[in-house]
Design goal:
alpha/beta; TIM Barrel; 2 domains; 11 strands
């Protein structure tokens, strides 16, 4: 069978509000699955006579999937995004679904959480290191931060010596151990500064759980926070609460970077359009001297300077 994979800017996204060119690692794993079965797979090259066209991940059991062939799936096309500080870099997925899985706006809602065998994940990361990659981002909806798997992952990562970033819940994890293992950036879904909203979207967190973001930062990690505006039930005051909390975390250096999007469950834009103005207002943090002081004192190497400039450009032209 001839299978044509045509990844797009939504193929690896958990929301449809923003286009983003992220390496579609799950699709790439599925493409390699079909290749190993003997199918003729075409990647990112439109053809007219394919038996099947694939634009988004299919429903293939995650446990059956091999690591992707990064050369075949053209990893170099996906370097220009804010998840990477050290280049070249690539994505993996150590799990599918989410340890929480209850957020109503996310495509991982109610998806069964499945984690790969530890040896398979470590072997893939070693091969990434051998290919010359300097950083790996695990795009599992939530990194598995519990128990034997997590402790042994950290232990083996110390031997590989590669920067590692991932998506993370606001929980009381062993952030010091993560730092020692080579973890760099942790992407926390803060979503809102209002408990009413966190409850409505099924986030399963409390506003005061930002203490875990602060704990991660103090352990030497680089928290990145994601928030949303445009919830149809929120008042202007509540939207400002989220903006102010985002600015506070950035000013203090507890969050190193941040992103904001507009609430659009199932790809349908909400009707609270007047709150869209707050999406770009998160970049207004540049007005605070305290923010720049912490940014300057965070500079330790040339990659820090390049990454800071990349973030500045993103804020200027967003």
């Amino acid at each position: 069978m001839r299978i044509s994979y045509l990844p797009n800017e939504y193929s690896q996204q958990r929301q449809r509000e923003k286009k983003r060119k992220i390496y579609p690692v799950l699709m790439a794993m599925q493409a390699e699955y079909y290749r190993r079965q003997g199918h003729h797979v075409i990647w990112d090259s439109p053809i007219n006579d394919a038996d099947k066209y694939v634009y988004k991940p299919e429903d293939i059991p995650f446990s059956c999937l091999p690591p992707p062939d990064r050369e075949f799936t053209q990893w170099w096309k996906y370097q220009d995004n804010g998840n990477f500080k050290y280049h070249p870099a690539t994505y993996i997925m150590s799990a599918i679904g989410c340890l929480w899985g209850g957020c109503t706006f996310c495509v991982e809602n109610n998806v069964q959480y499945q984690i790969r065998i530890l040896d398979s994940v470590i072997d893939e990361i070693r091969k990434c290191k051998d290919m010359g990659f300097r950083e790996v981002f695990d795009d599992s909806a939530t990194f598995h931060y519990l128990g034997y798997w997590f402790k042994n992952f950290c232990k083996q990562m110390k031997e590989i010596d590669i920067k590692f970033s991932c998506n993370m819940r606001m929980v009381d994890a062993d952030y010091s151990m993560m730092k020692e293992a080579g973890f760099r950036m942790l992407l926390f879904g803060l979503e809102s500064a209002n408990q009413r909203t966190l409850d409505k979207i099924g986030k399963g967190t409390k506003v005061e759980d930002i203490k875990y973001i602060i704990k991660a930062s103090k352990a030497g990690l680089e928290p990145h926070i994601a928030v949303m505006f445009g919830y149809p039930w929120e008042t202007d005051k509540e939207a400002k609460n989220t903006l102010e909390l985002t600015h506070y975390l950035l000013r203090k250096g507890y969050a190193k970077t941040a992103q904001a999007s507009f609430y659009s469950p199932n790809g349908i834009q909400g009707d609270n359009i007047q709150h869209r103005k707050y999406v770009n207002k998160i970049y207004g943090v540049w007005k605070y001297p305290e923010f720049w002081y912490n940014k300057i004192t965070d500079i330790k190497c040339k990659e820090d300077i390049v990454y800071l400039w990349t973030c500045i450009k993103a804020g200027l032209f967003s």
